[in-house]
Amino acid sequence: MPEAFFDESREQSQIKTKIVSDYFFAWAKIITRVQHSDRIAYIDLFAGPGRYKDGTISTPLLVLQKAIQDSVIAQRLITLFNDLDSDATQSLETAIKSLPGIDKLKYAPQVINQEVGTEIVKRFEEMRLVPTLFFVDPWGYKGLSLKLVNAVVKDWACECVFFFNYNRINAGLGNEAVREHMDALFGDRADELRAALEGLDPTARELTIVERLSIALNPGGTRFVLPFRFRQATERTSHHLIFVTKNFRGYDIMKKIMAKESSKTEQGVASFEYNPADERFPTLFELHRPLEQLESMLLREYAGRPIRFRDLYEKHSVGRPYVDSNYKAVLKQMEKEGKLSATKPGGAKRRPWAFADDVLITFSKGG
Predict the structure, then answer these.
(1) Is 181 helix (H, G, I), strand (E, B) or coil?
(2) Partner of 230 for a Cys bridge, out of 7, 82, 128, 239, CB 3.0 to 4.6 A?
(3) Could you give the CA distance from residue 162 to residue 135 in angstroms, rounded to a whole number?
(4) How open is the CA angle 352-358-360, to the nearest 5 degrees?
(5) Of 29, 26, 21, which Cα lies nearest the Cα of 74?
């Protein structure tokens, strides 16, 4: 890894760290409430030295700090930090030992030096994992593969966040010398992707790459994939942070965290401008629709069909930028305008304009 990488804490690194650590804490609080989950884990496969040279702490230390501050998590959390660079792991071990309250953790953090490749993937494939949040942040692309993601998210409550170095992967797709790594990342359709990229302008090329990766990460449509883009000061994309889960609740929580860290909002909806897109790229396009379009979508898709608010939210919000508060704001206005009716089960009293999970909504057929 280039020495300059950890020289200072760049803004995108701070945002990345905040997104991952905020999600870890939210995820850990939920999982530790489950009685049969006596242990949880956080694994960082490219952990780095723990601190930037300006003294700012990176993701491993921030995660440990959050664990130390919660007595329940502190008794259940297992942490594993890996980096092939022995200087980085020595620095990380020193930084971990200096954390105030580190002895409050029941399980001492493990720091190891291993190459992330086929052997470690095989181990994860063969293991039955406790609920685990994986963070994969390689400098380039070596070690990042579909097999790795599939291996680490296969078990209950196991989720993955990875940093996707767009600049290097974009260049790598046309480089025969790294074909093996690109094939490992994009799977059986890597050659199809290469053909699709021919002649595309830079914007369409990026959208195609991220769209195809999102599809590859969601075999059979059983997962939720959420990308978040980072731009350089020059407006060129540098990285994507991509989240993979099998659970809508995790997807919803991460979406709200990412929305909060988005650079812009429009009509109260996070812009997700890190992924500008159009109709050719449905996974990304649907993440960029203004709130004013939500009403027309709901009327078009659900006219005359009764549906509970929770079911509506879970089915309609996937792949779109809206969170529950956006839906409630639109539904409230639609009810006032007579475009829908809403009732509680069994005729129970309902607070005016409120949309609890069990509220049954029927949209007008005439719009």
Answers:
(1) helix
(2) 239
(3) 6
(4) 70
(5) 29
